[in-house]
């Protein structure tokens, strides 16, 4: 194994090596820019009694919660997303919720695993960032190595059972002259939230100030830039506050599961390499 903890070193490693390092607990940071070409996923793990309602919530709010994978009950292996993905160890940092309240962040959830749990994977906007970078779009959180800012909004979700709450968005400063191009590129990735939900004034979607994100790190807006907001897979974490299951495990915002799925596929299905 290559023992690295530095984000810049991980950016040059293949997907399998990135997951190996994460599984060993040697990297617990954000995953933006890692494993280019591979689908990244938000994670929600719930007791089976909540699974059907949560699937309905995802179906009714597909832009914010694009479901790309579901585990079997009690199985930590995500076979449809990779050859050897163990959901208990392969996310850099997890957030543990008990009775709807965030209690701790950990790098390994084997001690929390139960036989009644079901894991859900939802597409992440980090996936389309490679395409933006390849087209010459600057992304400050990758260039400066911080977690993309995320905000609660007043945009409603469609409730399902106990799950409800406003949509969470991620924000990237984009040059005003590039907004149309950015919209066209990101719209090609419906399983990574697709095109932006909103461009411009944050107050129009209930964000009072950009200086205090609900998750992630604050980000400056240049004189020639505008804030561009995408639906975010942290939306279910907001809904968990209302559902209040006895236990829910998610990724720590910004710390995604890196899968083996080709991000260019219209329908994200893992296909093992021949041989």
Give an overview in words.
- It is a single chain.
- With 275 residues, the chain is an alpha+beta fold.
- It has 2 domains: 7-125 and 237-262, PSTPO5379-like (3-Layer(aba) Sandwich), CATH 3.40.1640; 127-235, PSTPO5379-like domain (PSTPO5379-like fold, 2-Layer Sandwich), CATH 3.30.2040.10.
- The chain is 19% helix and 25% strand.
- The strands form 2 sheets. Strands 1, 2, 3, 4, 5, 10 and 11 form a 7-stranded antiparallel sheet that branches. Strands 6-7-9-8 form a 4-stranded antiparallel sheet, with helices on one face.
- It is globular.
- The two termini are 23 Å apart.
- The mean pLDDT is 90.
Tell me the β content.
Answer: 15-25%
Helix content: 10-25%
Number of helices: 7
CATH homologous superfamily name of the largest domain? PSTPO5379-like
Please state the overall shape, judged from the principal axes of the Cα atoms.
Answer: globular
CATH class division of the largest domain? Alpha Beta
Number of domains: 2
Number of DSSP E strands: 11
Arithmetic mean pLDDT: 90
Please state the structural category.
alpha+beta
Low-confidence stretches: none
Quaternary structure of the protein: single chain
């Amino acid at each position: 194994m290559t023992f690295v903890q530095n984000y810049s070193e991980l950016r040059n490693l293949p997907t399998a090596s990135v997951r190996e390092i994460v599984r060993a607990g040697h990297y617990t940071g954000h995953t933006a820019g890692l494993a280019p070409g591979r689908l990244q996923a938000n994670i929600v793990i719930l007791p089976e009694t909540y699974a059907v309602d949560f699937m309905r919530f995802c179906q009714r709010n597909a832009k914010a919660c694009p479901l790309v994978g579901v585990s079997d009950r009690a199985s930590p292996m995500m076979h449809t997303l990779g050859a050897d993905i163990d959901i208990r160890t392969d996310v850099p940092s997890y957030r543990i919720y008990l009775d709807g309240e965030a209690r701790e962040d950990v790098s390994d959830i084997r001690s929390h695993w139960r036989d009644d749990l079901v894991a859900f994977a939802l597409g992440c906007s980090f996936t389309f960032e490679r395409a933006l970078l390849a087209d010459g779009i600057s992304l400050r959180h990758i260039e400066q190595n911080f977690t993309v800012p995320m905000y609660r909004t007043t945009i409603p979700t469609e409730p399902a059972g106990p799950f409800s709450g406003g949509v969470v968005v991620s924000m990237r400063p984009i040059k005003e002259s590039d907004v149309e191009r950015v919209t066209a590129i990101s719209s090609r990735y419906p399983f990574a939230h697709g095109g932006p939900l909103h461009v411009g004034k944050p107050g129009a979607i209930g964000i009072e100030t950009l200086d205090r994100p609900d998750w992630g790190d604050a980000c400056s807006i240049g004189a020639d830039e505008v804030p561009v907001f995408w639906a975010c897979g942290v939306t279910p974490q907001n809904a968990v506050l209302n559902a209040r299951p006895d236990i829910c495990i998610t990724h720590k915002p910004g710390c995604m599961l890196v899968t083996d799925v080709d991000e260019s596929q219209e329908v994200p299905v893992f296909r093992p390499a021949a041989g």
